[in-house]
Automatic annotation (TrEMBL):
<protein>
    <submittedName>
        <fullName>Si:ch211-196h16.12</fullName>
    </submittedName>
</protein>
<dbReference type="InterPro" id="IPR044926">
    <property type="entry name" value="RGS_subdomain_2"/>
</dbReference>
<dbReference type="InterPro" id="IPR036305">
    <property type="entry name" value="RGS_sf"/>
</dbReference>
<feature type="domain" description="RGS">
    <location>
        <begin position="50"/>
        <end position="156"/>
    </location>
</feature>
<dbReference type="Pfam" id="PF00615">
    <property type="entry name" value="RGS"/>
</dbReference>
<dbReference type="InterPro" id="IPR016137">
    <property type="entry name" value="RGS"/>
</dbReference>
Length: 170
């Protein structure tokens, strides 16, 4: 992170109408933005995409990026064709839920067991309870800290500079 210290996040947000960021206090908005499903890099990232990526970097710094990755994988799984559910369910289980998973998420034993049992006959809603647990964890724990972090402050500065540059070029 940078050594630059900002006077306050509120003073940054007042610059160039940034006080109306849709995900400013609600994790659901940043996760459900249309750009959260994009995997390609754009020349001019939107505030949604910048917010999602800043949140991802913040989680990475706290060694909890797997929570966001799991949540996004569950969203992708929900829209999977029925013929592909089995393979994708096993992939998510291997990546995030198995006790030896490389990105194991923190689920209670009851939910973990329910997901394990579901692997025999996976449905589109198979990960709903597990996804909700991880969402609650991020919403109540990680996201409030993110809003106070230097990652959030630096993202606001980038948005301010980007909007100022676009206004100048117009």
């Amino acid at each position: 992170t940078s050594n630059v210290r900002y006077t306050s996040v509120n003073s940054l947000k007042s610059f160039n109408h940034l006080s109306h960021l849709p995900w400013d206090s609600n994790l659901q908005h940043i996760l459900m933005s249309p750009q959260s499903k994009f995997t390609t890099v754009t020349l001019y990232p939107t505030p949604y995409l910048m917010g999602l990526e800043a949140f991802r970097w913040f989680l990475r710094s706290e060694f909890s990026e797997e929570n966001l990755e799991f949540w996004l994988a569950c969203e992708d799984y929900r829209s999977t064709a029925e013929s592909q559910l089995g393979a994708k369910a096993h992939g998510i289980y291997s990546q995030f839920i198995n006790s030896q998973a490389p990105q194991e998420v923190n689920l209670d034993s009851e939910t973990r067991e329910a997901v394990t049992n579901m692997l025999r006959d996976p449905r589109a809603d198979a990960f709903n309870n597990a996804q909700q647990q991880i969402y609650t964890l991020m919403s109540k724990d990680s996201f409030p800290r993110f809003l106070r972090s230097s990652y959030y402050q630096e993202m606001l500065v980038c948005l301010c500079l980007g909007r100022a540059a676009l206004a100048y070029l117009s």
